[in-house]
Design goal:
about 230 residues, alpha/beta, Rossmann fold, 2 domains, six-stranded mixed sheet, three-stranded antiparallel sheet, 7 helices, 9 strands, globular, binds adenosine-5'-diphosphate, binds magnesium ion, nucleotide-binding, transport, Energy-coupling factor ABC transporter ATP-binding protein, ATP binding, ATP hydrolysis activity
Length: about 230
């Protein structure tokens, strides 16, 4: 057991190459305190998705250490790559298969998770009939049903309209605070930073700053190409 004060997400000196001549991540170290909502920032192609996948164990690291409080949930940019079952309820329960729970336990976990993301009335709704924001909330409900301590989200609002974007970021913040989860949310959208407890700034594969969201917002504006980060 980790003490309550220990960070729930830690990486030390993480490096990664997609090929021998192209280092993508260089000596990245970061820590996200337990129970907080942090964002991972940086311009397109700087290595955010690669770093998140290494943290999740979806990619094998070449060097460095990673330590995350289990279980870990992952939310992809495009929910159509994540949701595999035909209905909301079936998809959320699918992630529980390995836990060998009773029917009643599964039912209770699914109800609780859908309630947490305000989707309980859509339990039987086919996935194809959902909006993009609702699909992302189903993916998040999957992680909540598994009682995930840590949630990693890779630009979950990239395909959403501005209203659904803000709704989702508010909801994840609320979930983090009400359930004591720890979340790391990848974005290059500056307005989402207003909801973060802290942020990590990645530039060309290096962590160049971490801490106060407001300070990092300014630094991202300095390094980013204005059009991209303002969108
Ligand atoms: N599967 C892959 N194979 C080879 N190169 C990749 C792969 N995925 C990403 N890259 C390269 O790694 C770098 C970082 O990509 P990525 O982590 O997706 O950045 P970001 O998420 O910040 O936009 C980019 O140069 C990208 O082209
Ligand atoms: Mg990416």
């Amino acid at each position: 057991m980790q003490s309550p004060a220990a960070p729930a997400i830690v990486a030390n000196n993480l490096s990664f190459n997609w090929s021998d001549d192209r280092p993508v991540l260089k000596d990245c170290s970061l820590a996200v305190p337990r129970g907080e909502f942090w964002m991972l920032l940086g311009t397109n192609g700087c290595g955010k998705s690669t770093l998140l996948r290494l943290l999740a164990g979806l990619l094998e690291r070449r060097s460095g250490d990673v330590n995350l409080a289990p279980p870990v949930g992952f939310v992809f940019q495009n929910p159509d790559h994540q949701l595999v079952m035909p209905t909301v309820g079936a998809d959320v329960s699918f992630g529980l298969v390995e836990e060998r729970l009773s029917y009643e336990q599964v039912r209770q976990r699914v109800d609780e998770a859908l309630m947490a993301v305000n989707l309980l009335p859509l339990l039987r709704r086919p996935i194809y009939a959902l909006s993009g924001g609702q699909k992302q909330r189903v993916a998040i409900a999957g992680a909540i049903a598994r009682h995930c301590e840590v949630l990693l989200l890779d630009e979950p609002t990239a395909l959403l309209d501005p209203d659904s974007q803000i709704e989702l970021v508010e909801q994840v913040r609320k979930l983090v605070k009400s359930r004591g989860m720890t979340a790391l949310w990848v974005t290059h959208r500056l307005n989402e930073l207003d909801f973060a407890d802290g942020a990590i700034l990645l530039d060309r594969g290096r962590v160049i700053d971490q801490g106060e969201p407001e300070r990092l917002k300014q630094r991202l504006l300095e390094i980013g190409n204005g059009a991209e980060v303002a969108s």
